[in-house]
Amino acid sequence: MRTFAIGDIHGCLAAFEALLSIVPLSSEDALVTLGDYVDRGPDSCGVIERLMALRSTQVVQLITLRGNHEIMMLMAHRDEAIIRDWCDAGGDATIASYMGTKLAGIPDAHWDFLQKTLPYHETATHIYVHATVDPEAPMNEQQDHMLYWERYWNSGRHVSGKTLVCGHTPQRNGEPRDFGHGICIDTFAYGGQWLTCLEPATGQYWQANQKGEMREGMLGRPMTPAAVQAPLA
């Protein structure tokens, strides 16, 4: 079984669809999505629908992690007093994607999806998380502010010896950043750059953007010109 990871989608459904069209996924593979499915981009509703469809059709073994933007959305659902804070962080785009101005327009199935997202995923060789980890703490002792909120600042290899794969800290040049013991694949999709899918075992990655352009690369090598381009109509 191969494992792939996708960085912060942030409502960029067009990029997500284009990316899924070029990554060679099978039903035997695991796909770990690193959270921040919602906010800022134009179609958070569509992104959640697409993730739910991937899970229900079982075209891949989907593992959905939780990001800080899912936390803010869930908090706003529980306490309307903080809706404005969430909207200031991009939640207004999420509400608009549901064709409304209130949280009441969001289906129960979507809230259920968000509630069931996971704090992290661990394999024999890698740790997958939205934000970062305390390198000195076992995973079952990690604090929420590390898993969801802190930026990744190359703080050293995790005590387990495993390689970290994370999002959350945007790489504004649109390329994943490899620190050797940690790889950040938030490549600023909502900001006009690329959405990234990485196969950590090989270092190969695939990217797509909201224009429907696609390209491939390998960690540690200069990015080559776009290998495939399929502008959306």
Briefly summarize what is shown:
With 233 residues, this protein is α/β, with parallel strands linked by helices. The chain has helices at 13-22, 44-57, 68-78, 83-97, 108-115, 144-149; strands at 3-6, 30-33, 61-64, 120-122, 126-129, 163-166, 177-178, 182-184, 195-199, 204-208, 213-218, 228-229. The strands form two sheets. The protein has a seven-stranded mixed sheet with strand order 3-2-1-9-10-11-12.
Number of strands: 12
Classification by helices and strands: alpha/beta
CATH fold field value: Purple Acid Phosphatase, chain A, domain 2
Query: Judging by the overall fold, what is the CATH architecture?
Result: 4-Layer Sandwich
GO molecular function, one term: phosphatase activity
Domain Calcineurin-like phosphoesterase: 1-181
InterPro entries: Ap4A_hydrolase, Calcineurin-like_PHP, Metallo-depent_PP-like
Protein name: Serine/threonine protein phosphatase 1
Describe the protein in words:
Residues 1-181 form the Calcineurin-like phosphoesterase domain. GO terms for molecular function: bis(5'-nucleosyl)-tetraphosphatase (symmetrical) activity; phosphatase activity. The termini are far apart. Helix content is 27%, strand content 20%. The chain has a 7-stranded mixed sheet with strand order 3-2-1-9-10-11-12. Strands 4-5-6-8-7 form a 5-stranded mixed sheet, with no helix packed on it. Residues 227-233 have low confidence and may be disordered. α3 (68-78) crosses α4. It has one domain: Metallo-dependent phosphatases (Purple Acid Phosphatase, chain A, domain 2, 4-Layer Sandwich), CATH 3.60.21.10. It contains 6 helices and 12 strands. The chain is of the alpha/beta class.
